[in-house]
Task: inverse folding
């Protein structure tokens, strides 16, 4: 029931009121576009009037500026990825409150590639992903491994799905099951059919702006080569990356989604969305049925059952190799006290209980 209650009389007429109405612990005071938003404590909130009377929200051009402002004590709190925060040295008078964010990272397959339509090849690729090493060395342990697109911190997450484990010998077994034979002279797997002899050659697409994804792509390429699959990384700028995803000009891609607080995976691999964000051109009748069942589940028990079945099928089908969910944190100046319990989409939960040592404005 989290939606704004608004007054018909307040919003009646042709023009919108200058000050929007809300029903939380803070009310709108002032707004300067692209600069700042000023909030004042509400005397009418049913949760009680907050101790901190005024909050100034600073708007900047990017997350690096946000983090720098906090490191210089220009602001009192900031929400950021823990990996990003590792670039800066912070003063001792600050506290960190971590949580698993809704940023999901994965490796996607192009199902227009006949080689990748073979599930054994997809399993072989998954077995070449050194996920624990990636989390430790690339994300500096600031991520949580996942076997599906459901956040591991969610009550919907199925903990009984092991997923494909990193195992190069197993990867070679999967490739052999797909009908390929290892050639010790070339150190490559090959298959011979009526059109000749073929190796497996895969292009891994990644956006160059993401240092983490680029490193994931490089590590994957190295592991694929070690088991007898030709591979190369194609790091391009973001606009080119999206253009190539939309046109299907890739074999594998390293990507990520910011998942909804109420998860629905239809945009990722529903047959009805093959011209939208279903870049992998995946289509499967059973997957569509499971997506619909999960989407239409009403009570908690039905949701858990529906999503568990969907997660199990996704882990087996491998339209994506699920990698991880990133960790983020709320960083707060220690002069502020109270209940800090950030969660995705509600980073400042409990702000009405926060207190500050002085009467200074909190930003």
Result:
């Amino acid at each position: 029931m989290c939606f704004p209650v608004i007054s018909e009389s307040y919003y009646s007429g042709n023009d919108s009121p200058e000050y929007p109405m809300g029903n939380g612990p803070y009310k709108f005071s002032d707004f300067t576009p692209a600069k700042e938003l000023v909030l004042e404590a509400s005397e009418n909130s049913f949760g009680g009037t907050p101790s901190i009377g005024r909050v100034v929200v600073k708007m900047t051009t990017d997350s690096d500026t946000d983090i720098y402002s906090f490191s210089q004590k220009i602001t009192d709190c900031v929400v950021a990825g823990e990996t990003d925060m590792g670039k800066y040295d912070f003063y001792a008078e600050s506290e960190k409150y971590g949580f698993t964010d809704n940023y999901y990272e994965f490796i996607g397959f192009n199902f227009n590639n006949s080689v990748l339509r073979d599930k054994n090849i997809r399993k072989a690729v998954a077995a070449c992903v050194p996920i624990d090493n990636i989390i430790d060395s690339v994300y500096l342990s600031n991520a949580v491994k996942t076997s599906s697109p459901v956040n591991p911190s969610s009550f919907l997450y199925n903990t009984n799905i092991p997923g494909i484990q990193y195992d190069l010998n197993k990867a070679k077994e999967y490739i052999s099951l797909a009908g390929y034979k290892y050639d010790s002279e070339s150190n490559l797997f090959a298959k011979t059919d009526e059109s000749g002899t073929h190796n497996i050659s895969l292009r891994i697409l990644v956006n160059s702006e993401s240092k983490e994804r680029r490193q994931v792509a490089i590590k994957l390429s190295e592991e694929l080569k070690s088991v007898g699959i030709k591979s190369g990384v194609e790091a391009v700028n973001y606009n080119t990356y999206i253009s190539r995803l939309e046109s299907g000009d890739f074999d594998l891609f390293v990507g990520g989604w910011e998942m909804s607080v109420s998860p629905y995976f239809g945009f990722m691999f529903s047959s009805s969305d093959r011209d939208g964000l279903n870049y992998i051109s995946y289509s499967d009748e059973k997957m569509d049925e499971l997506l619909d069942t999960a989407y239409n589940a009403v009570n908690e028990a039905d949701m858990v059952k529906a999503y568990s079945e969907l997660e199990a099928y996704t882990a087996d089908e491998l339209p994506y190799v699920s990698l991880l969910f990133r960790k983020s944190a709320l960083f707060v100046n220690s002069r502020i006290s109270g209940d800090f319990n950030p969660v995705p989409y509600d980073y400042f939960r409990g702000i009405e209980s926060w207190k500050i040592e002085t009467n200074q404005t909190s930003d």
User: Anything to note?
Assistant: The chain has a mean pLDDT of 89.
